[in-house]
Design a protein that fits this description.
heterotetramer; A: about 450 residues; mainly alpha; 18 helices; elongated; B: about 100 residues; 5 helices; about 0% strand; flat; binds NADP nicotinamide-adenine-dinucleotide phosphate
Chain lengths: ~450, ~100, ~450, ~100
């Protein structure tokens, strides 16, 4: 017992402490000042996540996070004597010059792709950092603990990179949004995971850069095969999962570099991302394992698409307008179709007209309507719908008792399986076929003339 | 920091991460995910430090690539989150009924 | 800037690291194994607090905490070569032999005293530990950081000890429960706080054991004068505050000894105790500063006791029984009087009889009814009232709309100032005078005969 | 552990402490306070270590006193908390209406 612990700790802590000395010893700031600076940045990140958890403080929270990142970067530059300073600054400028316009100009409906893309490149960067650090320390033995963290970073960072790129391609409709199940995919997946395991063991045992690099390449394959069989409806959950993966990767990178800030920031994201993923999966009534491995077990992860034979009541825009006009309380249930048709402004205008006539209008937001959880909130907020009117599923369900009309806009897919919580879907339901934008514009015109 | 210290910090950060987001409303899931996504872009600090100590030209190029990618994650992440949140504003005085309901809970 | 930070960190981190080596270097377990053991114990404490936050997991949480403490103690014994082992074990046995029977036999109404007492001795122990550590390291300079922690521990530990003892004496009615405002108390308080400040500075500057010991004695005086002017009604808040103080003291002790476990455990208690104190103060509509210093600013902290001239409607037990019997929904608001009269079993029996007749019975618990927050819950739980029937103020307030009878048992004091949230206190209120136990027994008998 | 490591641990523990109890119901205020009270009795570990290294007879006596006090805090705290919690049990199947209301929220 004692002997074991001693052996472990010899390998475990000797080299990391040395590495810390290496990276924080020779700059303008003392090592302790650097650590205190990193701690302050970590606190900023915690406050950022806390702020982001409440609508009133969300924006300030994000700014606090950005301030923390800036502080950390300044501290890093002052912490040690950096070679190639000009090139490093240039690379930062290039990265910012690409990302800022992209982030500024992206359309609201394309936000999810953007998040997936940024997540992927972050994971890729973490994997590259771990490989480089391994290359640098090739002489000394970094110890099994640090090597395990290196292998983890290289593997999971690559998985996150490749998975996010496939997700991006699916969302951007560069490739099909349908689940892709290649013949024998199951065996390819099992094989590449096995290979990754062997390579990870080899990396830890030998500290060999080649083994770690091949491990990273295997990670790319794992990432691709992990996300390919996921159907469009499950994509939001996968983005959240990959986000948590990148967080854990960065945390492992913190162990590799003995850097508290990477450790805390990555762990925060990994832990909160895991919770978020579970919340989302629970809201859709799915298990994360089912989403990832369901397709491989046979069939895609998309729901059954058997067409029901029940007669539906098709109505025109005028009928809908009349229904709305003589209601006292209307709940709008927006869905993916609202985003596709960019009809958020029209629905807001319609709601305002109705409110002008004393009709109460609420929005019932299914947690996974749209392409990401909360996508509908962002979209409606863009159209200046105040967030007080946006109700979550739990809040809005009791409202239905006193509601006269429920207007389901491009959300048949979320309302249908949710039939148990949304009463009266069958006989009292009328369908207005057509594009959400066209139809709503017609309804709006009809309401105005009443 | 020593290994045990890092381990202690890791364990505590796990609890902070779990607890902080466990109360978030679905309204904020997308911005929260996006903000968390920006935060892990802080791997940029690691990329800068490693590149600043890189020896070979190959390692330098890889390091610069990592810096570009990490910067995109960090900067782009915060900007896109801010854009989302820009739109979350309370109704300016109007909508008394909605506001009342919001407080009623 | 750089020079400053370097100077700071020289004093700051040199000696504490050395102290750590001293206390964890020479035992059966390696230093790292000890740290990992302490970390596991710290995790147990976090899980304990998490568990204690939910009724279903509370008991398990407490057991997890106890298991963590046991683990930590075993690790401590194996961490280093301890002298006087037999005496140390004997002291532990003595402490346990005193505490366990006391904790087992205490009556439910006397729990608050017990908590205050245990809290006080913990604070005292922390102060003694800090003084001893200072005495041990008298040769070397422990650095300003460690000395600041020492001064904090000695002072706040003593304040917590003395304050808790006064609280105990008040609750146990060894002394008056009225606020005690000695003439010139204000100046004595200001004087002893000033003296404490001077002594703390002296301790940090000199590292002198005598200065630190006098500081601790001054802390005793501060503690006494802090709690004396607090009225009985504010005592629960003060217990909570002193609990947080002891937590912070132990955390500072962790800095002094470079012991992660004391640091984490103490900080957890300090942080959670602070939140708890604020929650309680908010529920009573008081500020913590107002409670502590209100009496000194003039007058006691007890509420005004001006007798109202409004006519009251006095009724008999039979009338109450009839009211209850023909209600559909009854809310019981228990208070301090229920505890004093030990009437919890009678009220439960009454509720069961009413429920047997199809009447819904809820308990509306004011957060600070009784002698401690949640005191009523503990008391009613003792009488086998299920916790689902216990409603907090926020939950029960909407229920009043549909409630026919509100039975206020020994809680006139909490209901009265809360008149704004409890509708209809005035004209619809009837009073049944007498001891809670007697009266309830009569009411119960009357209900049974109906 | 070094000073900065202790500082980092302290800061994270503050957040954990704040977050963990911020959701507690008043029903559990007394047991929570009592449990927290028991936890700070872990100063016993400090008392044992210091006493085990104490030199003079005076220091030893003070140390033994500290051990007695800390043990009373630790052991008594957990026992008294357990006694309180022993009594918090759910109604055994009966009281459908109360249980329903409990879930209705
Ligand atoms: N498609 C994707 O790339 C993607 C990506 C991520 C997440 N998701 C999620 O997956 C779910 C289903 O995905 P999917 O690809 O199978 O979507 P889909 O079936 O093409 O469309 C989903 C819903 O949107 C409605 N819709 C689409 N275009 C519309 C328009 N122009 N006007 C009005 N309504 C319109 C559809 O209405 P009808 O029932 O009337 O056809 C349907 O109810 C979505 O709810 C979304 O949450 C999809
Ligand atoms: N007393 C203490 O040592 C102490 C300590 C800590 C906290 N507190 C808190 O301080 C508040 C007021 O303290 P206090 O000392 O001024 O208490 P108090 O006035 O003696 O009693 C408070 C309440 O309990 C009722 N009560 C007392 N004995 C009763 C009995 N045998 N049967 C029925 N009802 C009985 C009183 O009813 P009537 O109005 O009918 O007299 C009054 O409403 C209490 O609510 C408690 O939360 C008190």
């Amino acid at each position: 017992m004692t002997a074991l612990f001693d052996a472990v700790s010899g390998g475990l802590f000797g080299a990391t402490a040395e590495a810390a000395a290496e990276t924080t010893g020779d700059g303008i700031l003392s090592g302790d000042a650097v650590e205190v600076g990193y701690l302050a940045a970590a606190v900023c990140f915690i406050l950022a996540l806390k702020g982001l958890s409440s609508p009133k403080t969300a924006r300030r929270g994000n700014l606090i996070g950005a301030a923390g990142a800036l502080l950390a970067l300044v501290v890093a530059f002052l912490s040690t004597d950096l070679a190639h300073l000009a090139l490093i600054l240039l690379a930062i400028v290039v990265g910012a010059a690409v990302a800022v316009p992209a982030a500024r100009m992206v359309k609201m409906t394309q936000m999810p792709q953007m998040v997936a893309l940024f997540n992927g490149v972050g994971g890729g960067a973490a994997a590259l950092v771990a490989l480089m650090e391994l290359g640098e320390t090739s002489g000394a033995d970094p110890g099994w603990f640090s090597l395990t963290a290196t292998a983890f970073t290289a593997l999971v960072g690559s998985v996150s990179f490749a998975g996010s790129m496939i997700t991006f391609a699916k969302l951007q409709e560069i490739m099909t949004t349908r689940p892709v199940v290649l013949p024998g995919a199951r065996w390819v997946m099992i094989g590449s995971m096995g290979l990754a395991f062997v390579l990870a063991v080899a990396t830890v045992a030998s500290g060999n850069l080649v083994a770690a690099s091949v491990l990273a390449l295997t990670g790319l394959a794992v990432g691709v095969f992990l996300v390919l069989p996921v159907g469009g409806a499950d994509v939001p959950i996968v983005i959240s999962l990959l986000n948590a993966f990148t967080g854990l990767t960065v945390a492992a990178g913190g162990f590799v570099l003995s850097n508290t800030l990477l450790l805390v920031a990555g762990t925060l994201v990994g832990a909160s991302g895991t919770i978020l993923t579970r919340l989302m999966a629970a809201a859709m009534g799915r298990s994360v394992a089912g989403i990832l491995f369901g397709a491989l077990k046979g069939g895609s992860t998309a729901g059954s698409t058997a067409v029901s034979d029940r007669p539906v009541k098709a109505v025109g825009a005028d009928d809908v307008a009349i229904l709305l006009n003589y209601a006292r309380k209307v709940v709008v249930v927006p869905g993916y179709g609202l985003a596709v048709a960019q009809a958020q402004h029209t629905i807001r205008e319609l709601a305002e007209v109705l409110e002008g006539r004393g009709i109460e209008v609420l929005y019932g937001i299914h947690p996974v309507a749209g392409r990401m959880p909360g996508h509908m909130n962002v979209l409606l907020a863009e159209a200046n719908v105040p967030y007080e009117a946006l109700k979550e599923m739990d809040e809005v369900n009791p409202e239905f008792k006193t509601t006269d009309v429920v207007l389901v806009v491009g959300a048949n897919d979320v309302v249908n399986p949710a039939a148990k919580t949304t009463p009266g879907v069958d006989p009292k339901t009328s369908l207005l076929f057509g594009d959400a934008q066209d139809s709503l514009t017609k309804v709006l015109g009809a309401v105005k003339t009443l | 920091m020593t290994g045990v210290a890092l381990l202690s910090v890791f364990v505590l950060a796990v609890f902070v991460g779990f607890e902080v987001v466990s109360k978030v409303s679905t309204t904020l899931h997308t911005p929260l995910m996006s903000g968390a996504n920006a935060i892990h872009g802080i791997v940029l600090v690691g990329a800068v430090l490693v590149t600043g100590h890189a020896d070979g030209i190959g390692a330098q190029l890889v390091g610069l690539l990592a810096i570009v990618l990490a910067t995109a994650n960090l900067v782009g992440g915060f900007v896109v989150t801010d854009r989302m949140l820009e739109m979350f504003k309370a109704r300016p005085g109007a909508g008394a009924s909605a506001a009342k309901e919001g407080e009623g809970r």
